[in-house]
Amino acid sequence: MSAAATRPRKPPIPVLLVTGARGAGKTRLINRLLGEPAFAGTAVIVNEAGATAVEGAMVERAEDGIVALSGGCVCCTVRGELVEAMERLLRALDNGRIETLSRVIIETAGSADPIPVLGLIARHPYLSMRFRLDGIIAVASNPEQLDADAQRRQVAAADVVILPRTAEADLMTARISQLNPSAPILAVDVPGLAAKLTGLFDPIDDPGRLAAWLAFDRYPLEPGGQAPPYSAFVLARDGAIPSSALWDFLDRLTLDHGDKLVRLRGIVRNEEGEPVLVHAIGGLFSVPQILAEWPDGDRRTRLAVVARDLDRPALEALVDAFTGGAIDTADRAALLANPLAIPGFRAR
Prior knowledge:
Elements: H1 3-6, E1 13-20, H2 26-34, E2 42-46, E3 59-61, E4 67-69, E5 74-77, H3 82-94, E6 103-107, H4 114-122, H5 127-130, E7 131-139, H6 149-157, E8 160-163, H7 169-179, E9 185-187, H8 193-196, H9 207-213, E10 230-237, H10 243-257, E11 261-269, E12 275-281, E13 284-285, E14 289-290, E15 301-308, H11 312-322, H12 329-336
Helix pairs in contact: 10-11
């Protein structure tokens, strides 16, 4: 067997997506992070015309449009496809032109929807093996930015929201919490910011963060005061979803509601009483993971949902069907007489 065949696969490189309106403060945030030791060896990909990710840095130009920075970072501006830029970074790393590549920050254009950006990576046969999502950060600096649907969707999809200034902080906090109640809201100058912005997507080793995803005091069961079309709520059910049916459930959830989901985070109880972490951005689900322990004292199946124009009763009926709840005649016909019927499912 050749040495190449036995070489262990490199761990995937974490990707941090920074979104927000043009002028919101994304550059200030990225500059702050690049000055932290935890972000040494970070690559920055910028796809906003006229933007520069690093201010005042000594730079040396390299091949393929990559700029090597004195702090051990690299920066390249996307003139074509994002996939091409990420492939260039990998070639530079594998060919030794970049010594290390500890993570990648993608700064999106002000009007970019983060979900298709992530889809480009998740669905790519090679990039999906070399990169993994570490989190989505939305930057919002004033209430007017949240009047635009693009910025509202960015905030709704975010793991963390950054406020680059304190003016109108109370109003901003209220509006952000309506769109995404589970996202922590942090000031750009908060101590220890870098540590708070890593491991955001699947924090399986952080029970406190998992519990915050599902906190009912932050996710009202009814989106009272929520300006449509966005809604945020938690669905909780006593029933379990068997491990053998979990992928069927996620597939059906994606098929029926994937285009409406912005974020879905949840703990599913399997037939053995174990907590299983499920997580999706849009219709992109990460691989479910069995947790070592429940993050809190609640042992129910709980799904925290942020969605746009969602048919909530239909979603509830689907959850009821898989957790053993009662379903009505129309749902029964759809689930059992459908060519995509759930294997082994029998309605009451």
